[in-house]
Amino acid sequence: MPHTDNPALSYTEIIPEEANLVNFIFQSYAGGQGYRAIANRLNCEGYASKRGKAFSSATVRGILTNRNYIGQVTYSTYENKSSPRTKKFVQGTHEPIIDMRLWNQVQEQLAKHSRPVTKLHSRLFPLAGLLKCPSCGKGMVPIHVRRTRKSGKMKVSYYYICGNYASHGPSSCRPHHVPAEEAEHRIMSRLALFLDSPAIADRLLTEVNRRNESNTAPFQEQLKRVAAAESSLRSRSLRCYELFEDGHIDGTSLKQKLEEIRGETEKLQLEREKLEQTISGFSVQTYPPEHVKRAVEDIAVILSKAAPDKKKALYRSLIKSITVPPDRDMEHAVIHGDIGLLHLNIPPILIEKEVNRQHGKNK
Question: Counting CB atoms within 10 angstroms of each CB, which of 19, 122, 133, 193 has the fewest?
Fold first, then answer.
């Protein structure tokens, strides 16, 4: 338990329920169960990690390699600030909850199953994280499935599946397999079609200029307030002269009141100039139609010819997320644009209507 005032007085307290759960995880792994199988069982039985989250493969592995459970304390140290930190272990004062025989057996199995990660598949998955699970909304992650054909040849299929399912097992969500090649082809075609339509450039142009106008709206309101205040000061000034002419105030009072009005007027003039300068800056950012159309054409060309790694980066600059429909028919997926598309959404029906209307005009 961490000490609130003095870290040196912190200590480890064994909680029986948690100790039993840790023992169960070690026994399960020693008995041949994998990370994911253990995590899924714990999640199905309603257990949660210390942080209140569902168990994942990473959580289970973290428990299996935690030396705190064999009575040791882990700390980091380094020789100097420029050298990397190294972990050291010392015997603690708390009782171990995992015996050394079970610990060593588990560590041997971990070492046996741990091998350097070798990429058998160099394929890139540009839609990883962008596709959202139709059930839970979690980003979808790539997997590959190997099958042996009747001819004896190995076939590898690529999919996107729910990230929750991949991390926490079937207790958290369903896999919702989406064939990778089909999804990428559909999204690529939809995006190219969207960018290729002349109506889209006009729509982007309208949106750019509309947002510029929207940005200036608060400053325009402030400018109206300043103008009203200036008008009020002019009325006050005229009223002062009328009072002086009618003999209600003397020359000294008139001079004093006019000085006050002049001071307020100068402040308002400065405020008005700053607001006009700000609004002028937004007005300069209004883009000519030909510039927007050329930019859209350039994006479409780059998207079709870019190398896979560049294409992945480009996708992320244009797309914020892709809502996968419940039936996983990617023709009906909705693309939510990111900053590169001014956060515009690209529903399939809208694209079809706009493109078909444009083609009808060109016939």
Answer: 122
